[in-house]
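Incident review: delayed structure delivery

Summary: a single-chain prediction request sat in the queue longer than the usual turnaround. Root cause was a stuck worker, restarted by the on-call engineer. No data loss occurred. The affected request and its eventual output are reproduced below so the record is complete for anyone auditing the incident later.

Affected input:
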Amino acid sequence: MMIPQCSPLANYQAHKLEIDRAVRQVMDSGWYILGREVEAFEKEFAAWNGNACCVSCANGTDALELILRSLDIGQGDQVITVANTAVATIAAIERAGAQPVLADINPETFTMCPDSLEKLLSRGSGKVKAVIAVHLFGHPAAVSQIMALTEKYGKRLIEDCAQAHGATVNGNKAGSFGVAAAFSFYPTKNLGALGDGGAVVTDSPELAAKMRRLRQYGWESRYISSYAGINSRLDEIQAAVLLVKLKYLDEENRSRQALAAVYDAGLAGLTMLAAPKVKAGCAHVYHQYVILAEERDRLQNFLKENGIGTAIHYPEPVHLQPAYVRYAGTGLPQTEKVNRKLLSLPIFPELGPEAAEQVVKTIKKFYS
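Output delivered after worker restart:
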């Protein structure tokens, strides 16, 4: 039997009765857009993450764009982020009209390197308005150092939490450090909908109010746009699904951490790969369990032949992809070096320790 790399279906089946009941209630209500379920989810998610406000939207890319536009970041502005991320981070910057500037990464955490960031900030470009720190694979970025740098140079800190629902630094959740943070609820996320969905969290009621208008054509009142906005709304069905799943998120993150512990113990001592590192004071929620593997492609094929699914997140860093090759000359040696070895092993709450142990056994067989 194939061990999948992830399984949104397994997560749905784990909560099927509650989800089906919640969806049926929405269907029977006759109200399908921006109603009670959305309002309830926004309230619950903000409280769970420790923020004052939550503004839901259609997806995580839109969430980033809404943040940038609410801060009046656009044409002629620059935003520093990383190339070792889903293309959505870069796409959102360009959709807002701004230009991405790319920092290198820490090769242990795969997140933004503060030293690389400071080199970019110290150039003194007045065009740089914000920094988007990506909490990749479930491990927080170095937010304390990044916050110190954004304060020093007078820039806004935005968090991309698409893969970090529940990750913490010194007990504070990702999404509680910057001026605002974007989340994705794509089905494979730690908190995943049964379709697309996203949200912004912030402690600024003023920014939240502006984003609520921006997500619906800039309407100040119905059909009257005070400024140009977009159409990006979380529907009632997805909000109802997320309300059900949110109750189990902490428990499911603990399940991911327990699976990661099985991998950590089983893979310890293998010189041909490196397991993910967790920095002191951080809680990793393992959206992905990503190793750095020698002979990565051969290992991936071997695992597939033995019924084990894996993935490469991501096959090319953004600056080496055809649509963004104009950023290829920015010099990101650690990003490019790490990218050639990344491999995501199976991890999802329903996987179970026995399956994780089978993955370990098969990896050891490959390297023996």
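Verification: DSSP finds 13 helices and 15 strands in the chain.
Action items: add queue-age alerting; document worker restart procedure.
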